[in-house]
From TrEMBL:
The gene is lysI. It holds the Pfam family AA_permease_2. This is L-lysine transport protein. It comes from Corynebacterium marinum DSM 44953. GO terms for molecular function: transmembrane transporter activity. One of its GO terms (cellular component) is plasma membrane.
């Protein structure tokens, strides 16, 4: 169970927490920030509980996020969720590595912003090095992740203690509590503006669910999810709240990406910035390993279930899904080239990756609502073998609680899509669209029905959004 907890913390505490002071301050004042954390805490806790409940109610679904959606809503919806999760992980990888080398560039000029080619080469080398480690098996990678998780928590803990006792000023924190004189708009606008940032730093909370097939006990998956969530929430709220007591909102918003280092530098001097920069490098390295592990799993599972070519599900003698890991590494490499040629900013990578992660969150919550309300999801050809209509007996009281959890998580996911920038929604649809090609090809090869009624509606919406993205690109009105 503790390996699963380490996987959650390792994949969730990545680059986001180190840029959190600047990200949040760019959109909200201290008061709106606290409201945003309450909403995000409740919403993401509900989503964490969705995966915990589904792990118990559907113990035979052992491919995590993807398998829940597929069982409840149909093969294509499951595929789209797995595909979106995979692409989000790929983009997150590039964002992690970019921030990693930008931080190193502060001390080693060859990786500075004036040398993008050197950074791109270094990101590529890191990707293939991690691939070599992962090909040796999950246990070796999990051990590496556990070591980096412990190592990066030390500087984060030091930041919280040092700022709390040496730098935090209540007067500064409350100086402009609601940011009434700023350009960030009303409190509602401020809360809406920080939503995707708060979700980004929670991405990975479902990590234990993704690896549920490799867990010793299904109940360990649920326990690890809750323990990991509460630990991450405490760290995130502490870092963002304490920062407002050191610098004003305007000063925080003007900081570079590694803004946590700048805040600690104000409190204790340059050695504080160096400590946090070291922590960021360890954190991003650990997250890089975790996410390169995680992003291969949906590909391997979809290949195993016949939604992608079966060759992608190949496993080597060490038990590693090397074909899926190889495919993921190749796509990461292509994404590195595209993003660096377009000089895509780290913040844009964050927003796009977050939108793609929201797809499985939304559909997993919808499945739990259907499960609690009617006992099953939507019908499709493989409902029987996916145990859609069977599972452990659930009492009426537990079922009502599960329904409440599902509804809260579903409303929160819908709110996040509403709060997201339309640009990233359109580009997210454009990124998911190419998955139709291998999906339709494998379905035709197996003489299977392409889509059920619900899936046809989703495909139509996807095509419309992707068409809007193409039109915006052609007219020059959309860009990353």
């Amino acid at each position: 169970m503790w390996s699963l907890v380490a996987l959650i913390i390792g994949s969730t505490i990545g680059s986001g927490i180190f840029s959190l002071p600047q990200n949040v301050a760019s959109a909200a004042g201290p008061g709106a920030m606290l409201i945003g954390w309450v909403l995000s805490g409740v919403g993401m806790l509900a989503i964490a509980f969705v995966f915990q409940v589904l792990a118990v109610r559907r113990p035979h679904l052992d491919a995590g996020v993807y398998s829940y959606v597929r069982a409840g809503l149909g093969d294509y919806i499951g595929f789209a969720s797995g595909w979106g999760y995979w692409l989000g992980s790929v983009i997150a990888q590039v964002g992690y590595a970019t921030l990693f080398f930008n931080t190193i560039g502060h001390y080693v000029p060859v990786f500075g912003p004036d040398h993008p080619v050197a950074t791109a080469v270094a990101v590529s080398a890191l990707t293939w090095t991690i691939f070599a480690v992962l090909s040796r098996g999950v246990k070796q990678a999990a051990f590496m992740n556990a070591v980096t998780t412990v190592a990066k928590l030390v500087p984060i803990g030091a930041f919280i203690v040092l700022v709390a006792f040496l730098g935090f000023s209540w007067e500064r924190f409350t100086l402009d509590l609601w940011s009434t004189g700023g350009s960030t708009g009303s409190v509602f606008d401020q809360v809406q503006g920080i939503m995707l940032f708060t979700v980004w730093v929670f991405i990975g909370i479902e990590g234990a669910s993704v690896y549920s097939k490799q867990a010793r006990s299904r109940r360990d998956v649920g326990r690890a999810t809750i323990i990991g969530f509460l630990t991450v929430l405490a760290l995130l709220v502490s870092v963002s709240t304490l920062s407002y007591g050191v610098l004003t909102q305007e000063e925080l918003a003007a900081l570079p990406d590694n803004s946590m280092a700048s805040v600690l530098e104000v409190v204790v001097g340059p050695w504080g910035a160096a400590l946090i920069s070291l922590g960021l490098c360890l954190s991003v390295l650990g997250a890089y390993v975790s996410w390169q592990m995680l992003c291969a799993e949906p590909v391997a599972m979809m290949a195993f279930d016949g939604l992608l070519p079966r060759r992608l599900g190949a496993v080597n003698i060490a038990g590693a899904p090397w074909a899926a890991q190889l495919a993921s590494s190749v796509v990461i490499q292509i994404t590195v080239v595209i993003f660096f040629l377009n000089e895509t900013a780290y913040i844009s990578m964050v927003q796009l990756a977050t939108v793609l992660y929201l797809v499985p969150y939304l559909f997993s919550a919808l499945y739990l609502v259907l499960l609690a309300a009617r006992g099953r999801g939507f019908s499709h050809p493989h409902a029987g073998e996916l145990f859609d209509d069977s599972g452990p007996t659930v009492s009426r009281g537990d079922n009502r609680r599960h329904l409440v959890v599902g509804v809260v998580a579903l409303l929160y996911a819908c709110w996040l899509f509403y709060a997201a920038d339309l640009t990233y929604l359109l580009f997210g649809a454009l990124a998911v669209l190419p998955g139709l090609v291998p999906y339709v090809w494998t379905r035709l090869q197996a003489s299977e029905r392409l889509f059920n009624t619900f899936e046809w509606a989703v495909v139509a919406l996807l095509l419309a959004a992707a068409g809007g993205a193409v039109w915006g690109l052609s007219q020059g009105t959309l860009s990353l």
